[in-house]
């Protein structure tokens, strides 16, 4: 039998007091973030959107310089729509999950083409855009357009799970947390409410040791009352990620230009640049077998060590083969100078592989024969 905490009753009262307490706290403790409108200003949906997409799985500190550089280069949704996709992916390198950059670009084009350059003003309209899920749609609609809708990201889910002592494990609990979260959204200042929940989750109701003594919702919090807050939200056990292994071939010319190929448009790291790779399996191929996948014949040398990278669903380990050519051989790929390489859409894992290849060769190995 499930016992209903008293706070579940009288949702109206709880809604009012939770929102009031949280908003009063927010007015005093709000974080000053580069993408956030000042009190009393109207938020720009483009800025909210850009920051929310960048912040997925990344910290505020890591995002801030990317956000500023992006906004300087593409200050409006129209300028982003008109940008070259490779340039957008290049500017994204380091933030991971490149499909987000591609979706960002596609969504900007959709907004310009189908919506006259204006963002849809409702969460339902926003959700129809590429790469915008329930959370981001809620955040933009609430913050930029004042729609009374919840923005349930990991921070908000944690606060709500604790506030109501929800013991079901994530991801199953998501739907219930969303309903409970939505029920708390006030009609007035829904955008500030969403941001207040974000700030509370990232500064006070933190994952390991919630700072309940500094929390404006402490008197209402069921998780705290029961002494189980720190254990919430519960999470279903993760399956171990499989390990894949393969070889990467870094070909260099005398000036340090690098030979790259473009990945297929669809799938993992779609459309990004990389050095040629062999197939991935459960173990590394023996050098003679690995070299059958090299793009050119040459004096390939296997670098000691390896490069490891974690993707969402698997871990990848690459052995790196490197070869220097006096003359650039021709292949299906292309050569980029170090300067071009710096801003090219090369994902982090491939930058690691190339970094490993040239590690002990900087400055760039001029005059070494292949
Ligand atoms: Fe989180 Fe503690 Fe506040 Fe409850 S009282 S919402 S557990 S910080």
Describe the model.
The chain is α/β, with parallel strands linked by helices. The chain is built from 15 helices and nine strands. The strands form three sheets. Strands 3, 6, 7 and 8 form a four-stranded mixed β-sheet that branches. A hairpin with a 4-residue loop joins strand 7 and strand 8. The longest helix has 19 residues. Bound molecules: iron/sulfur cluster. Iron/sulfur cluster (SF4) binds next to helix 9 and helix 12.
Helices and strands: which structural class?
alpha/beta
State mean pLDDT (0 to 100 scale): 90
Element-level helix/strand string: HHHHHHHHHEHHHEEEEHEEEEHH
* Main β-sheet description: 4 strands, mixed
Distance between the termini: 74 Å
> Could you estimate the helical fraction of the residues in percent?
40-55%
Large-scale geometry: elongated
Radius of gyration: 25 Å
Percent strand equals: 5-15%
The small-molecule ligands in this entry are: iron/sulfur cluster
Helices, by number, come to: 15
Low-confidence stretches: 1-9, 361-370
How many E-type strands? 9
């Amino acid at each position: 039998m499930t016992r209903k905490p008293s706070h579940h009753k009288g949702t109206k009262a709880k809604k009012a007091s939770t929102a009031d307490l949280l908003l009063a706290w927010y007015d005093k403790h709000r974080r000053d973030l580069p993408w956030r409108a000042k009190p009393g200003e109207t938020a720009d949906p483009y800025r909210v959107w850009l920051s929310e997409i960048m912040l997925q799985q990344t910290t505020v500190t890591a995002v801030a310089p990317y956000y500023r550089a992006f906004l300087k280069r593409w200050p409006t949704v129209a300028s982003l729509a008109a940008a070259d996709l490779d340039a957008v992916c290049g500017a994204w390198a380091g933030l991971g999950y490149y499909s987000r950059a591609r979706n960002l670009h596609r969504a900007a084009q959709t907004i310009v083409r189908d919506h006259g350059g204006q963002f849809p003003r409702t969460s339902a309209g926003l959700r129809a855009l590429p790469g915008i899920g329930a959370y981001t749609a809620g955040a933009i609609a609430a913050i930029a357009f004042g729609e009374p809708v919840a923005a349930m990201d990991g921070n908000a889910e944690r606060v709500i799970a604790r506030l109501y002592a929800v013991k079901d494990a994530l991801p199953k609990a998501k739907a219930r947390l969303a309903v409970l979260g939505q029920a708390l959204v006030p009609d007035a200042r829904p955008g500030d409410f969403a941001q207040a929940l974000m700030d509370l989750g990232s500064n006070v109701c933190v994952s390991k040791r919630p700072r309940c003594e500094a929390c404006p919702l402490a008197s209402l919090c069921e998780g705290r009352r029961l002494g189980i807050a720190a254990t919430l939200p519960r999470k279903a056990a993760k399956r171990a990620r499989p390990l894949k292994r393969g070889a990467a071939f870094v070909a260099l010319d005398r000036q340090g230009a690098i030979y790259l190929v473009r990945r297929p448009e669809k799938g993992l790291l779609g459309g990004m640049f990389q050095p040629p790779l062999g197939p991935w399996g459960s173990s590394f191929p023996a050098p003679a077998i690995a070299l059958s996948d090299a793009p050119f014949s040459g004096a390939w040398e296997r670098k000691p060590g390896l490069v490891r990278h974690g993707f969402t669903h698997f871990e990848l380990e690459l052995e790196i083969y490197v070869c220097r050519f006096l003359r650039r051989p021709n292949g299906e790929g292309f050569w980029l100078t170090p300067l071009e390489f710096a801003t090219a859409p090369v994902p982090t894992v491939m930058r690691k592989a190339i970094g490993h290849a040239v590690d002990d060769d900087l400055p760039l190995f001029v005059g070494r024969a292949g």
